[in-house]
Every structure is written in structure tokens, then in C-alpha cells.
Amino acid sequence: MRALLVLAGSLLALVVVPVALGDNGGFTPVEPASPNAEGIHRSWLFVSIFILLIFVLVETLLVLFVVRFRRRRRDRFEDGAQIHGATRLELMWTLFPVVILVAIGAFVFYELPGIANVPSAAAGDRLEVRVTGRQFYWQYEYPNGVIAIDTMRAPAGVPVRLEVVSPDDDVIHSWWIPALGGKIDAIPGTVNETWFEADEPGVYTGQCAELCGLQHAQMLASVEVLPEPEFDAWLAQRRTEQTAGTSELGEETWAGVCAKCHGLSGEGGIGRRLVGSPVLADPQALENIVRNGRVTRRGQMPAVGSGWTSEQIDALTNYLEENPPSGG
Amino acid sequence: MAVSPAPTPVPTWQRGRVTSWLVTTDHKRIGILYIGTALVFFVLAGLMAMAMRLQLARADAGLIGPERYNELVTIHGTAMVFLVVVPILAGFGNYLLPLMLGARDVAFPRLNALSYWLFLLGGVILMLSFFASGGAAQAGWTSYPPLSVEQAGTGQDLWILSIHVLTASSLAGAINFIVTTHGMRTRGMTWTRMPLFVWSMYIFAWLLMAVLPTLSAGLTLLLLDRGISIGPWDIQTHFFAPAEGGAPVLYQHAFWFFGHPEVYVMALPAFGIVSEVIPVFARKPIFGYKAVAFSTVAIGFFSMLVWAHHMFTVGMPNALNGFFMVASMIIAVPTGVKIFNWLATLWRGNISFDTPMLFVLGFLSIFTIGGLSGIYLAAFPIDWQVHDTYFVVAHFHYVILGGSVFAIFGGLYYWWPKMFGKLLGETLGKWHFWLMFVGFNLTFFPQHLLGLDGMPRRIYTYSDEGWEGYNLTSTIGSWVMAVAILLFFVNILRTSRTGARVGNDPWQADTLEWYTTSPPPPHNFDDVPYVTSARPLYDLRRRLREQRGARTSF
User: Fold this and answer.
1) CATH architecture under which domain A249-322 falls
2) Interface membership of A1 toward B (CB under 8 Å)
3) DSSP 3-state of B85
4) Which of B92, B176, B220, B238 is the S-S candidate for B244 at Cβ 3.0 to 4.6 Å?
5) CATH code, residues A121-244
6) pTM score > 0.90 for this model?
7) Which residues of B touch A20 (CB under 8 A)?
8) Contact assignment for A187 to B339 by CB distance below 8 Å
9) Residue boundaries of the structural domains of chain A
10) Reported ipTM
């Protein structure tokens, strides 16, 4: 009996303690901020009703039977009731779960269109962004040729359709911003799509969800949602700056692509120390390494920049020329 | 019985304490070898998990670098599946199947020995791959290409080799279990009088036979994609290389067509153990024998139709996602049938709480959670949210560690007196259980919440301080479990030194293995009673009681 109290107490503690320690403190996915994430959230809550019901039923019966039918003063080997089964009960607990599962399945299919279907472009303006997962950064391309790394800007209240890909010479990644919907893999040789429509301006974060190599853990992504006019202005300005070579692309590339292995000040990490490296001063050599990667004694640098436009390469070279890594 | 040929004398060199184990073809010794070896790997793979938990206890910890962490993730997972859970269950099957069926040995004793030695070889290859050039494999136990093709060094190749060897081992074992079950049941033991553990091992074996070849095919393609050299020829294929028209997702299909049934390969025999232990400690027959046996078959069958629920995020058409969702949910039905039948077996029983029963009751309470969290994952839009997060990590540890491994510990405490003639200490056993139960939930429950909050699996570090509380709790839990496991080994040592001998049948159990001596002689039985029900020993005791005219039970 005492053991059972300990059991019940510790189970309760297990539920309560981590919740108190954690920040979102919830048994639900991250607060949704987009219709597709909301659909998933509603499905989660609907399924939870039945999950909790069955959980409570089974665990209660278990504890109840264990307490009620424990040995007490009976002889250890005295027979319990010699009951071999009951067909009616078997049928009941076969059919009852079927009914629940049908309900769950039906609800999921009811919510599915709102989660999976990308709002059609005809209904109004829709933004298209190509998301490329690469070791170990996310690259975004807007229809007007603007490129951004790791941080995507998007307008609030506008459906954004994402084409999620990975280059042929890269590996599988998975695009995931929890508040903006489920994840979709970026698979070499395949074009996947997903979408979101952020309700409110704000910054939503996520990270790569498919093991993609050494710096998988650093492959963070965020979506900065701006009010629509502000976003339009940013996109136009970025276009101009990118052409002129004055955009932040170089810095973004350094921080998102190079620094994850070589350190933000080039101090080295998983990759070698870059401070004072002659390669950085030689644009041709730099381009060669970035485009083709290289195999060294210590391992292998992926071809992080294969397929980059010359605009992007120049942005990086210019940035490094002006801000040579100091070693921090 | 048929006339047996005159026994060949055993050569002197094979009689030594060590050599007799090296050359043995006795299913009982092979079973013990399997279990003992798997326990060693359990400790090794457990230490790997402890190391990972230490690294994750704090945000931005620098204890283990990404390279080492990815090795640990990969080898921990691979070892726990291929070197721990499956072989321990195969060990139980080896030890128990002939005894439960009233047979002298398995059908092919030499093949059985080969199966064990291949298992050991595969395990040693996997563990030594840490010392390979470039380190051990780093692409996770699923080893998806292109990542696994890209990895330099020989670790990934050794990983493939190890799995190939282990596959051969498992197939040899599976053939043995199937033929033994078909051909070596004693007189009177019809299919519906077989112990439920035998049913589960029988389906275990068929599942392995059905799905392991697919894994082998997938891994061979992976090996060829990585490139091999035979003499002067270099062979390099592109099955999974998109640049050459290959498809990386093809590998995932091959892997999971094996990988999901593998979950049931690890779960079904654990269910079998539960179905043996509960009736004995509740002093009742199993409730709904046929329903439990049939649900085992049903789970085995449906487990081969659900593999792509591991791939809901690769961008399959939703019609296909829907099919795999429905198929996955169907499996919940026979699983539920089992749970309710176990509960009904407790009803109006005379329940004793010895350590085997505690572990099995722990299994019931934990496995229920693992099964239920699976419903979320089967609903594919929800899976899009929680796939590849710590929610999934929590889910499969609730199924495999809290489910299978708890049942395995229950089985070890339950059959230990049969194997070695001595009961494992009850006091230490109870400490082992309670620490394990608390430690387990402490470790894995918070991981559900981490996953929901967006923490992906297989990351070696994180910066979100909101995740620290859960992660620290989880790490503390892993230490509690480590103490529990330590107590288990202390218990074994102590029992072997000072434990008192108990009789042939200390639990007054119902199945044939308890009819013979503990430990059983090499030939298992001097005679086997004619089997008239699924509980031959219960029948025997009742007949004895009636003959003596005694009204009380013993």
C-alpha cells in the first residue's frame, strides 16, 4: 500500500516538476502563429481528449486491481478466480478502440485541407520563397533574386509558399519553424513544398530537424515577420543594395555559412582557425574553396557555396576584405 | 520415446570450464551466453547514453564535440536495438522454447551455436569501429544517405558489415525458432496449448525472416554507393545519389520496411514474458488466451504495413500518408486487446508483488504511455510537428526501454531460479525496480515536453535556456537508472555467492520449463507429462491434489 502511494506521488511529481522547470510549461506544441499550425494544434487537442481518457482508464484499472486483489492474508499459492475469458468483453475492447480511432482519423482528415493545402495564388498576393537546406545553413531566394541566409523575412497576413530543396551534392535536412506549421524534409533531387501565413509580426525560430552532419545542432532558422508595407520596403531596398554590393548578404553569409565551423571571429572550432589565412586575402582561392570544398587531414569541408551567384561570392569576399577575422 | 542413438563421448579437451562453453550446442548454455553478452553490451550502450545526457544537461556545454556525439548517438541506438534487446529476447527464446515445448533441444543446435557466435562477432565489430579511421559511424542508427554515403573513413562501412553479420545471426536463430515450434512440441501440445511466450517468439522469428532481407538489400546498396574495391575493380554505384538519378528516399523505404517490424520484434517477446508472468503472480489463467495469441499474429502482420509512418515528412502524397496513418492506428487495436486482457487477468486474482511481477506491472503502466503517444505520431499532421524531436525519443524509449526492457528484467528475475537454481535477492530486486521506475520516468517524461517545445533529436548542444530544466531533470533521471542497473549486477554477484538454492518450481508456475530440475540437465527432461491444456503443471498439481484428497492448495 505504501509502495503504491509512493508510486502515485512520484508519478505526480514527474508530471509537475518538469513543467514547473520549463518555460512553456505545456503539454501542447508551441503556440501556433499560422493557420496550418493552428490546424495541427486543434488536432493535437482533439487526440489528447481520447489519449487522456484511455490513459486514466488503464492506469486507474491497473492501480485499482493491484490494490483490490493483492494477496493480503491469503496463502501465497491460493488460486485466484479461475476465469479463462469472456468473448463479449473481448469484442467490447476490440470495437471500442476502433470507434475512437475512427473519430480521430475523421477529425484529422477534416483538418487536413487547412493544414496541407497551400492557399492558391489566385486568391490574392502570395509570396514564393525557395528554401535551400545546406550543410549547415538555410538559404532563401525571393522571386526578385534577393538572397538571405538563416533569417527569413516575411510579410504578416500574406500566405508564403515555400519550395524546400537541398542541392544534389548535399544531404537531407528538415525545415521546421514550430509556430508556423509542421516540418518538411529538404531532400536532394526532390522539390517539396509547404506554407505559412503568419498572423502577427514577430520572430519565430526553429532549426533543422534531420541529422545532417557535424553542425546539425547549429543549423538554426528564424522567420522575422514584418508588417506587409515594411516587408515590401525591405525587399525592394535589399534588391537595390544587393546589386550595388552594399547589402548585409556578405555578413549574413559569413555568420551563417562560415562562422558555424570557423567561429564568428575566425577563431576556429570544428573548422580550422582562419585568422591570418592567406586564402581570405585571395578572392580566387576563396571562391575555389567555397565552391568546391576540400578534403583535409582533419576531415572534410563541404562545398558550401556550390551554385552561389557571383553576387553572393562577391558579397562574402567584400565583407571579408573589410572585416578580416580578428580571432576575437 | 524413440530409441536414441548411443551418445558419442565428449572429448576431454571439450570438458573444461571454459572450453565446454566455447563448443557448446546446448540451447540453455547458448541462451545464457546470449543474455550475458547482451548485458555487457547493455552496459556499454548505457554508458554512451549517460555521456550524451551529461553533455545535454546544460545549454552550450562543451563536454562532447559534435563528431563524438554523433558517434555516440549512432552506436548507442544501433547497439541497443541489435546487440541488446533483440539478442536478450533471442536468448530467452533459446533458453525457454525447448523447455516450454517439452523438447530436448532446438531443431538445429549447431546452427544455433553459429547464430550466437555471429552475434558476438557483429557486436565486437560494431564496438571496435570506434577505433576505425575517421571514427565510428555518425549518421544515426537509421544511417540515411546521402549523409551516410558522404561520411569519410571506414566507420560507416564497419557499421554495415556489423549489421550484415548480425542479420545472418538473427536469420539462423529465426529459422531455429520456427522449426522448433513446428516440429518439436511434446505430446498433447497443440498450437492453442503453447505458452504465449512461444507464440510471441514464433511471430518474432517470422517477422525477422520477412523483413531482414529487405534491410540487407538496402544496406548492400548503401555499401555499393559508398564504393568498394574488389582486387583491381572499383565499384561505385549511385542508387541513392540524386545527381546521378538515384533516390535517397528509396533507402528510407528499405530501412523502415525492416525498421518498424523490428520494433515489434523487440516488443512481441516482451509481451510474451508479460503473458507468462502475470498469470503466475495473480494465480489465474491468462484472460482470453486465444485473443492474446491472435493479437500477437495480428500485430505481426500489420507491423509490415506501416513502415512509412516514419517518413511522413519526406513529402509523400497525402493519400499515402493517410494509408499509413490508418494502418498504424489499426495496430493500436490488437495492442489494446493485449493490455485489457492483462488487466482482466489481474481481476480477482491473488496478487503477489515479487520483483518479476513488479517489473511487469511497471511495464504495463509505462508501455501504456508509450503506446498512447504513438497515436499522436500516427496522425500525420501532428507528426509533421513532433517528428524527429525529443517527443519521438521519449515515445520509443517508453516503448523499448520502459516496455521491452522492463519486461526483460521481469523475465530475468522470473527465470533466474530456473537458469541458476537460485532466486535473485528480493530486497535488492525491489530497490532495482523502484529506482529504475522513478529514474526512467524522470529521464524520459520531460523529453515529451522538450519535443513539443521544439527540441530536435540528435543535436549535440542547444542554446535555448528554456530547455535546460527539462534536460537537467532528464540527466538526473539517467543517473538514478544507472544506480538501479548497478544494483542489479550487485544482486547477481551476491546471489551467485550467497544465494540459497530453491526448488525446481519456486513460483508454482504453470508451464513445462518448471517441470524439470533447476537448472535443467543437458537433456532437459527425463519424462514429459502429456499436455492437456495451456497450463500443464497446473493440471498436474490439481490431479495430485485430487489424488491426495486434500482440500487445501499448496
Assistant:
1) Orthogonal Bundle (1.10)
2) no
3) helix
4) B238
5) 2.60.40.420
6) yes
7) 469
8) no
9) 2-72+85-116, 121-244, 249-322
10) 0.93
